Amino acid sequence: MQTLVSGLPARYIGRFAPSPTGPLHAGSLVAALASWLDARAHGGQWLVRIEDIDTPRCVPGTDTLILQQLAACGLHPDAPPLYQSQRGSHYQAALDPLIAAHLAYPCACTRQDIERALAERGQARPRHGELVYPGTCRHGLQGRPARAWRFLTETIKPNRPPALATWAQAAPDSVADQLVHWQDRRLGAQQQDVAQVVGDFVLRRADGLWAYQLAVVVDDAAQGITDIVRGEDLADNTARQIMLQRALGLPLPRYLHTPLVLGANGEKLSKQNGASALDLTQPLQALDEAGQVLGLPAGLSARTPADWLQQAVALWGRATKIER
Ligand SMILES: [Zn+2]
Known about the structure:
By secondary structure, the chain is of the alpha/beta class. Helix content is 34%, strand content 14%.
């Protein structure tokens, strides 16, 4: 649909970044479709990235199946997919300067160590099953062997809106000093105090695998991504990713988090709670259902996915505008 002009900087590059832990389901198609529509509606490129860094969770062959499912729905990437499993040297090249700048430090703690430290502080409440790291190893390992690498969240001065910045100057120790702010195109103004809510998060795991946050930030920059369109379940990662983008001097993309598809139990549809794979024999129906989640009208009269997408992209373009 969109002719690419090589050698010229694209104004818009979007991406869909599935984990090959299972085939696409109705929920993941919504994110794929939204990112494709937004890229095409703004004359941009659309890329696919296979997020296969968590190798024990990946299912062999699923990457191919996902690409086939996307193709059946008429969603064709503009370049061969990038595989995170092949990009370890790039993640190391990002971690090294963070270590040199004392923005990343080794951590010796096991989960039990973290639970104990939090309990001693009376703070043993997990957040999405994850523990808020209490900063035990910030000032050294005390002779214990390093296991993971963590990002030091408290030294970064995140971006702030002018009003808050003025207020924070008057109260330098205030919580506002730690806040990361961003504008989500659907959810509006967002903020998170990463140091308080998440703590120093992992960049490289104790099992040697790269953490999602670092890989995403490095790859989005490497692929020149200007616009991140993904499911709302990932919105909570945005502040951590902005912190890393700032620490690494990377461009800040725009964000649009799309509505989630809920299963019968009211929870987000996911591979983990048994969402069924998209039916490749009914791509029009799958597109129609995904489109309705995104606010597109039901029953566009189309005979092929390409036909459906052409109508949908025109509707999406009218409904969404990007400020440049
Ligand atoms: Zn530690």
